[in-house]
Specification:
The chain has 400 residues and is mainly beta. The chain has one domain: Pectate Lyase C-like (3 Solenoid), CATH 2.160.20.10. Helices cover 8% and strands 36% of the residues. The chain has 4 helices and 31 strands. The strands form 2 sheets. It has a 20-stranded parallel β-sheet that branches. Strands 4-7-9-11-14-17-20-23-26-29-31 form an 11-stranded parallel β-sheet. The protein is globular. The two termini are 18 Å apart. InterPro entries: Beta_helix, PbH1, Pectin_lyas_fold, Pectin_lyase_fold/virulence, SO_2930-like_dom. It holds the Pfam family Beta_helix. Keywords: Signal. It comes from Sphingopyxis alaskensis (strain DSM 13593 / LMG 18877 / RB2256) (Sphingomonas alaskensis).
Length: 400
Amino acid sequence: MRFHHLVVPFGAALALAMPASARTISVSADAADANEKLQEALILAQPGDVVELGAGVWKLTDGLSLDVANVTLRGAGTGEGGSILDFSGQQGAGEGLLVTSDDVLLTNFAVLNTKGDGIKSKGADRIVYHKLRVEWTAGPKATNGAYGIYPVESTDVLVDSVYVRGASDAGIYVGQSKNIVVRESVVTENVAGIEIENSYNADVHDNIANRNTGGILVFDLPSLPMQGGHNVRVFSNIVSDNSVPNFAPAGNIVASVPTGTGVLVMANRNVEIFDNIFDQNGTANVMIVGYRYEHKDPKYQPLPRAIVVRDNQHGKAGYAPAFPGGAEIAAAMGGTLPPVLWDGSGDAIVNDDVGVLSLNLPDMAMPQSAAKPSPADLKGTAPAPLPGITLPESMEAKVR
């Protein structure tokens, strides 16, 4: 497992990428009007500028926004003695920070206890989330914000070395985006640790997803502007002990995720799950399912297709299945379910040397013509491996 290390001083790499006229705008956490001063700095920043957060605990009552391209927001660290943006007294229900501009680097600060999402970016291409902490400090609660790190509708997204705890939907969520890398991050005590939804071309690797309801989710949902999620690689992650009871608010799609799920693929295509370490996931290490809800989207494809599971290490799994009927099935099989569960829709290849259970579930939401492969079809020759994601060098330089 690789886990990234700094090989070039961050300041030097940043200086190479910035114009000579770039400024550093420093803002102090101690000012009585720190909220206003910080928002003013984000408004007045010009392309190439660095907005530098002073060390200390920032007591913020309003959310922040940034819509200037090529700006760096940099703190003094994510732990004690660093730059801690504390939104416990937030008056509105929005996110802590909203970014709507391209080529932004967010690095080296913490965001705590937002009423809504922690850090959200929308339509922000080539955005980098680096060395951040987003946390709801009271632990898992339905009243916590939905998402910790939340890039959406973007091209070229890098999430690197972040920590998220307590999100009532997903700790790290990337939606309706293209060319995505989520790496070397830790997600714990969220409903979903990491979620890739309705997105194309993603690598999720070298992360630790521990003590969530579900570790890593790859979903495609109907009635969204960008559909047909595909080409997702989930590899070299540690996915263990995802045992936190589901605390998502009722009605959210992730409220249906069974406690004890390692990786869950739903209605996506061309997904590879390989070289991961799975252990202590009470429902299953890997679940592959179709979308089993009514919908009115004629273009939506609810079946999982070309899902490949290979070369993973499987520890204990299936000892506490949390889906309806799971306990009864486990009892009939001697007390536990196999590490890999498949609902029987679409097609999948599982070349790990472990047991696989095909539930062969009927579902009226599936197209009547959809073939349901037999369990014998689960082992076979996988398609050619998917290519890895290459992000622009300008993005990689920011984290070296």
